[in-house]
Amino acid sequence: MNARRTVVALATAFVVAAAMSACRSDAPETQEGSEGVKFDVGVTAEPCPEAVDQNKGCIYLGIISDLTAGPFKALAVPITESQKLFWKRVNTAGGIGGYEVDVTKYIKDNKYDPQTHSQVYQEIKPNVLALAQTLGSPQTAAILPDLKSSNVVAAPASWTSAWAFEDNILESGTNYCFEAMNSVDYAVETFKPKSVAAVHYPGDYGDDGAAGAKVAAEANSLTFTDIPTTPGQENQGSAITKLVQAKPDLVILTTAPAEAAAIVGGAAQAGFKGKFIGTSPTWNPALLKSPAAPALQALYLQSGPWAPYGTDTPGHTAMREAVGDAFKAGPSDGWTAGWVWSYPMKAALQKAADNKDLTRAGLVAAVKSLDTVDYEGMLPPEAGKFAGEPAERVFRQSLISKPDPAAPTGVTVEKDLFVGPTAEKYDFTKACYQ
Amino acid sequence: MSLLARLGRPELYTSYKQDMALLNTPAKRIWTGVIVLVALVLPFTLTDDLLIVLATGFIAAIGAIGLNIVTGYAGQVSLGHAFFLAIGAYTAAVLSGDPDSTRLIGFGITSLPVWLLASGLAAGLAGLIVAPLVARLRGLYLAIVTLGLVFIGEHIWKHWKALTGGVGVGRPAAVPELFGINLAVDGPSYTRAQKLYLLAFVLLVIFGVLARNLVRSRTGRALAAVRDRDIAAEVIGVDVTRYKMVAFAVSSFYAGIAGSLLYVMIGFIEPSSFNLGLSVQYIAMILIGGVATISGSIMGALFITLLPRLTRELPAVLPFISGSATTGGLTVFTVETVLYGLLIIVFLIFEPRGLYGIWVRIRNYWKSWPFSH
Amino acid sequence: MNEFVSTLVKGLGNGSIYALLALGFVIIYKSMRVISFAQPAFMMVGATLVSYLVLEMNFFVAVLVALALTALLGIGVERVALRPMIGKPVFVVAIITLGIDIAIRTVTNVYIGLEIRQMGDPWGLEQVEIFGVPVDQRHLATLITTMVVVTALFAFFRYSRMGLAMRAASYDQEVALAQGVSVGWVFALSWAIAGVLAALAGVFLSVGVGLEQTLWLTALKALPVIILGGLDSLGGAVVAGLSIGVFEALVGTYGADVAPFLGGDFFLVVPYLLMLLVLLVRPYGLFGAREVERI
Question: How is domain A176-304+398-425 classified at the CATH fold level?
């Protein structure tokens, strides 16, 4: 008797609850705003919280970065701040299509953990049109299926070659793979090495660079040694030993700054005379004050996807003006990176606004139709090609810098943007590290 | 006896069966029914992101129950939970992985019951293998050795790229397919979050009841004896090594199950997630929830899982916390870290029996109200 | 041969750092029966203090001042956070020290900032020739300093009154109290010594390349050291620290030749494997005292 009543009660409750499922509103509706621009999620007709012009509506972009915990925190903080300043400048200049862009309200920290990244993404997803920054390759990979199914565009804070294959991802600058290939080609041009080694972290960052170095070594008929290493400046002993044993003429370095200093300094101490070319996250201007500074100045060169902070281009100048004194708190090229990464998003938003379609689907369509992006001189316009096949649209140029204590970020350009023969001919069908 | 006669006398048992029942008082039955009802109604009222967080909490509770069995009930402090979680996660991912992939191992078996049990058994087997080695150790030696397991495991996951995809790359998690329906994608009538939430809830209830029965049984009493005074237990005939092995095996089984499902929630597994921090998180769950209690494990797991979400909402309430990460002083993110640590410490100092202890206090207060002092 | 000797010296240098950290753990354990997870924090505090002080004064003076300040911090932490916790279960206190560690490190990270801070030491990455073998100066300096410090510590425990009092308190607190030993002072002093040792370890760890926020992870390597040596053995901590350092360095250099499939960073796992192997045979570590239980 009791059991039956309980069952009946539970069943009724369940049916009622199922009927209540209409309580949740899930799908966003398309609305129309000023000047006939359509929008659905992440765009409001009300002004932004810190709007310059109170008459304009607001486009919300999300930023999910690693601001407290992980290995790239040192770069992530200036990247995020730089992006905030970029969009502030855009808003002061009038915004985009009758709207201002806000990136400050939905900044979340992912603690470099894919689970946290996924959770905070779900939290901000109903409120943002697109992601101005998503940091971390495994983290972005965790949300990539949802990004694709929900038509959310995202600008990644990394240069790995996998992004070229994703339509929703607005990467800028060449990837580590091509950067490494160009570095090897540059070396072949300038000092003709006979052997190459790649000292790298594991994963989408280090393995990408190492793969590029290997391809270029084979194309130029050089012997190649692969030396994986791990984070921790006191853990580089094994890598240094292998380096000294293998005695390559050129080393492609894809690690973090402290480890790079340990490797270059330690190898130099052991009498190593080969040259090092490091990818951009491998450098930090503070290294020029470390005991490894003489070795770095003698043996180290830096490759990069764009020119460092102190360069003279309209974009760089505007950036330096916007950043101002905040730069001194954390001098690094993270400021440059955040600034440059924002240009494609601006171009895509502009195009979508011109098409009168600021819905998520409209933004994706705008991205797919982009052939050039105005980088204000920081990168050539064709670097912003997002239409067409990955192999044709991927940008393959990188540049080489050398250490310079007088420059704000410790490096000045040695050879401007170029594409080496290996990268030019490379058949790009999948991410290099896979 | 009539209902009126039994009102107000919840401890009056009229049959042995009634006494030994899992929900032996009417109050327990009613409250359990209410909680189950509320939990079943939630998918229709909450937004998706909250549902995923709750579902993650439920799965974490399964893991926490496992840890409580070995650390709370059997007294063997294990910091190696992350290792067994990893084994479970990767067994499931490998079993349901894409069999045609050249980079990763996969067998294409996406049926949920198959890979769930397999991941539990794989982890349980690992626990069984490890147990005799650690049965001789006590206290801190045991804890650090289990920590060593985590580090060795980390090394394996980093280097076995065919299994894990490698650091910084990772691999997709298991695909939960039940009766032909894929639970990890939005369906025609239920969203992904709703389906996963219901799955997590049902599994939590099943495994929770199983664990509760285990600790109420002879095995549970033996484990408690091992925890309290293992030499005395040995003297009265409890085979200490055998029960330590049982504790480890069961705990790893639960960890395997939890591990396989935890990553289904995000859909992606990255090998460096299985580190000391993850083990400490589970220890925190059982310490805050209440050692040696099943409901405490569940409460602690939900608390720890929801805590980051709560601290993220704080700045909206407390405006002096800045949202920018470069300005000095109190940022949102520092507050989150500090609050996490602070709450754990406050709980340990003021309520060593954890959330379960708080619940017991509340219950006792109301039991004798208005005569409680 | 040259490579072997320089690897050996590097191993001894790194091992000395582990030994210093482990000694701190063991001293606190012996006096309070509590494992303190706050050592990484003291390590970072000591190194950060030196990196700031060195801008004003000589490196060696800066180190001494930093050691003194870290000792004060250790006493402060003990008085404020640990004294009220006497009597609570050991595990609870361990988690509390973990919380203190996180709190102190969060504050220290603000002062370290996002860059790499320099120690201003005279060794840097320089090498010196010993019998024709090039060895890193900083490893030699670390080794020599550690030996001096350990000898001083042992002499303190053996010959001084306070050392005797600490040894007495570690055997039996009640009896020591009855004999007039101020157990409160023993606690404070053990935390102060642990702080000093950790700070010294931090300084030596950062002299090579510089100090950055992620350096605290090295302190975790002291955990297998204390287990290997035995939780309550000072000599064990030193022996275990040096051996693990040497093993790590040897595997790092020669491991790739012998077993490349184990991965280039297999040497990171070596301390834990070593610990596991030794514990199979001796469940209380190499020199740890067997627990005596009464029913």
Answer: Rossmann fold (3.40.50)
